[in-house]
Structures are given as C-alpha cells and as structure tokens.
C-alpha cells in the first residue's frame, strides 16, 4: 500500500497562510520534514508562495547593527523544478530584496536546491557543512557567504 503522507502534507501546506506563520513555526515545520518531503512540497504555486514569503520577510529579519557599513549584493539561485533567482542588496544598514536577476555584479552567489534553501533560511542547516557536502555552491566572496547568517535573525526550531 502506498504511503500517502506526502500528499496529505502537501495539501496541508497548500492551505497554510504563510503570512500568519511565525519564523519559529516555519523553522519547526521545516525541521520536521525530510529532504524528500521538502522537495515534494516545493512545486508549482506552493513553491512560489513559500519563496515569496521567505524573501519577503528577509528585510524584517535583517539586523542593520550587525551589517554596519557593509555593501554587498547577494544573488540566490534556487534550483528545483526550475531555477528561481532572488537578490538581497545590503547597503550600509539597509536591506532590499527583489525577485529576478539584475544587471549588477553580485559579491557572492549562493546556489542550492529547494530543500537546502529551506533548511538554510529556517536555521535547520549549517551553511559551512552544506558547502563542504556540496549541497550549497558559493560563487564569489566565500567569507561573506559564510557570515551571512549574522546579518539576519534566523529562527530556531
């Protein structure tokens, strides 16, 4: 008999109002799912909603006092059904986030799959470990990439 838990999980998540979910609740949800389940969730409209909400909250989670005078463009390439690109621009205490690839040259580009992205932004994945295990590819300033988590309030599950 087939296990239908993934289908039920996807249906449950599709009904979820992501705007009403706290970062901590999101982190707990991600922590409770296997990489396979995370991959199964990230399809179609649900994937777009999840990515939109995560990147939409990035400005709120930004810690300007930690960033100080840092100026950097971070490009995020999330692979999966299709490649999605977002950019985070940090400029001396401000943070802007946009969908799509700009003409500007990023200081660092992070490339990862859907499951790895969700683990990273929910505090359930260690970026250094992910890099060493080739689950996260970094192009450009590796030092900036390694320290990105200090510029944002990352939830704890």
What are the key terms here?
alpha+beta, Nonspecific Lipid-transfer Protein, Chain A, five-stranded mixed sheet, 8 helices, 44% helix, globular, SCP2_sterol-bd_dom, SCP2_sterol-bd_dom_sf, SCP2 sterol-binding domain-containing protein
Which helices and strands appear, and what pairs or packs with what?
Layout lengths: L4 H11 L7 H9 L3 H7 L2 H18 L2 H4 L3 E9 L4 E8 L2 E6 L8 E6 H8 L5 H6 L3 E5 L1 H6 L10
Parallel strand pairs: 1-4
Antiparallel strand pairs: 1-2, 2-3, 4-5
Helix pairs in contact: 3-6
Distance between the termini: 33 Å
Q: If classified by CATH, what would the architecture be?
A: 2-Layer Sandwich
Low-confidence stretches: none
Treating each run of at least 4 consecutive H or I residues as one helix, how many helices? 8
Mean pLDDT level: 87
- For this structure, what is the CATH class? Alpha Beta
Could you state the order of secondary-structure elements as H and E?
HHHHHEEEEHHEH
């Amino acid at each position: 008999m087939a296990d239908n838990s993934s289908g039920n999980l996807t249906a449950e998540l599709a009904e979820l109002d992501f705007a009403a979910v706290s970062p901590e609740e999101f982190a707990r949800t991600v922590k409770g799912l296997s990489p396979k389940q995370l991959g199964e969730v990230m399809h179609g409209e649900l994937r777009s909603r999840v990515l939109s909400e995560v990147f939409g909250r990035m400005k709120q989670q930004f810690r300007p006092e930690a960033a100080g005078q840092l100026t950097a463009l971070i490009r995020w390439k999330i692979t999966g059904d299709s490649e999605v690109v977002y950019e985070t621009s940090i400029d001396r205490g401000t943070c802007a986030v946009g969908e799509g690839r700009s003409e500007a040259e990023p200081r660092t580009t992070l490339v990862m799959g859907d499951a790895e992205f969700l683990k990273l932004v929910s505090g359930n994945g260690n970026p250094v470990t992910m890099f060493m295990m080739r689950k996260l590819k970094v192009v450009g300033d590796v030092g900036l990439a390694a320290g990105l988590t200090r510029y944002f309030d990352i939830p704890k599950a």
